[in-house]
Amino acid sequence: MALSAPGIGSSLDVNSIVQQLMAVEQRPLQALAQKEASYQAKLSAYGSIKSGVSAFKSAMEALTSTDKFISSRVTVSNKDALGVTANGQAVPGRYNIDIQALAQSQKLSSGNYAATTDTVGTGKLTIQFGSYSEADGSFTANADKAAKTIEIEPGNATLAGVRDAINAADAGVTATIINDGVGYRLVLAAKDTGLANAMRISVSDDGGSGLAALAYDASGDGPSNLTETVQARNAELTIDGIAISKASNTISDAIDGVTLNLLDQAEKTISVSITRDNSGTKTAVDNFVKAYNDLYGMLSNMSAYNAETKQAGVLQGDSTIRSMQTSLRTMMSTALDSAGGGLSRMSDIGVTIQVDGKLKVDSAKLQKAIDDPSKDIATLFASIAKPSDSLVSFVSAGADAKAGTHALEITQLATQGRAEGSQAAATAITAGVNDKLMLEIDGVKATITLNAGTYTATSLAAELQSKINGAAELRDNDVSVEVTESGGVLTITSERYGSASKVQITGGNARTGLFGSVTSTDGVDVAGTIGGQAATGSGRKLTGLGISLDITGGALGPRGTISFAQGFAERFVNLAERFLADDGVLDARQDGLNRSIKDIADRRDAFNLRLETIEKRYRAQFTALDVMIASMQQTSSYLQQQLASLPKIGGE
């Protein structure tokens, strides 16, 4: 087969001709590329808008709590000895405080070991917290502190290994090793201060391995092989002459809305002054206006035409942007259906919409509203529900929550599951005889072992509660109980409310002695109506009309009203969530752009296949023309040669 190259025979530039023709054929691709670039730019713009809406939502969420609007200013005469913070609920006033002693945590020390690698022993350490009686030294477990059992295995049986095992267990104790110049001591420090957080450490020693050296029970009911180096102590202070003793140096329940941080004993009385601070309200309003203007400005910049630069925004004329701006303006202009605090519109505090759609604050009008005691600016922003019944509290409200005043009726109160004994409990506990109890709390099974000893009914209830709440199976499932006694009869009550709350005592050698025959009662959910409509109960929480309430007790029947107002910040949070939803306007627009981009890619691929066919056809046609011209040129040359060889007319 002969080889050929376009244009060789006729000098016809076939490649150049085909390239120029194909350049014309490819012009539709340029249009597709421009359209794709436009779609990509819009897609990127919508990504920026989603980020802007998310930032707007976060800013609005920060304003849904009244804490942002109500704050207090604190003045302390001795900041080296006392730190004070106050929230918006603190009552303005002046207090005189004397600090006699700071709370401290107990510390225990072991005997000396020659090296940190010395073997201590194997077995189990059970750490409990409680208080030792000054009268008789007896130990009463801290019912609010769960006991914690730590396994000491051969792999961590050294002094350093025991330290690490205790620290890893998060048992409320910090373990360190100190070299006193003679040897190494294990030091155990309770993390929490206070008399009720002294330690009792019981040991289950594997065959006398030596772990018993870490046992500590100052009551005398068990061995006490550790040395107390620092006593547990409460903080002692007086507020306006009233003596107060607290387990912690941070005290938040002495003065309503005020937290005291005791730093040092003070020789002189410390003066504390609390006044109302309204600066937080102005800051909150300014933050609201800025967040709104940032989002509205972004939407405007992306959709507007700049006459000065003669540049159109990427999303000029986009209907989705116009719809979002309309939603923002409409929500901003709509008065609250029901609002407390004497305010219903943002214009009431000087916040108005300008010609460009952005907000502006009239500072003088805002300050006047702030200074007016009859006005509560927080109600313009936060979602607030005000129950008329003191045993009803507001939990949350959904986007569909209905504003207004709604009647509340309770037909059933939530209860807790419980198990109650039939006789006074035996208070003498003997190891291996009557020290084990098998339970099932809220569907979770556990087995506990009580410390041997002689108890009072009260201290036995505390011991039982501490051990149950310390059981790993229950703790890992956030299950806990309260153990009480009445006339010596013990009752175990689940901390959970509702139909999932159940307590069963299933076995153990202590069951009969502690409880006799057991009566178990399962919990029930709260039931009732909100606004005349049936509400859904879950534990103590009752939900209806989009409003969730916590019913803590009270009588059955009518329970007053719930006045609910959904503030502007909450409204805008809900609007932003609708914008950002998977089926919202932004995702829908992005999905449409992505489909358009994919369609362009498909059309480009199809067009490129068509161009290949066209180019082949052009090359075939011009190659054939090239061959034809070359043939004609050869024929022309032949004829010229033949004509030149003919004899001239006229003879010789």
Mind explaining what this structure looks like?
It is a single chain. This protein has about 650 residues and is α+β, with helices and mostly antiparallel strands. The chain folds into 5 domains: about 110 residues; about 120 residues, no CATH class; about 100 residues, no CATH class; about 70 residues, no CATH class; about 110 residues, Immunoglobulin-like, CATH 2.60.40. The chain is about 30% helix and about 30% strand. The strands form 11 sheets. A 5-stranded antiparallel beta sheet has the order 1-16-3-12-13. Strand 19 and strand 20 form a beta hairpin. Helix 1 packs antiparallel against helix 12, helix 2 packs antiparallel against helix 4 and helix 2 runs antiparallel to helix 12. The longest helix has about 60 residues. The protein is elongated. The mean pLDDT is about 90.
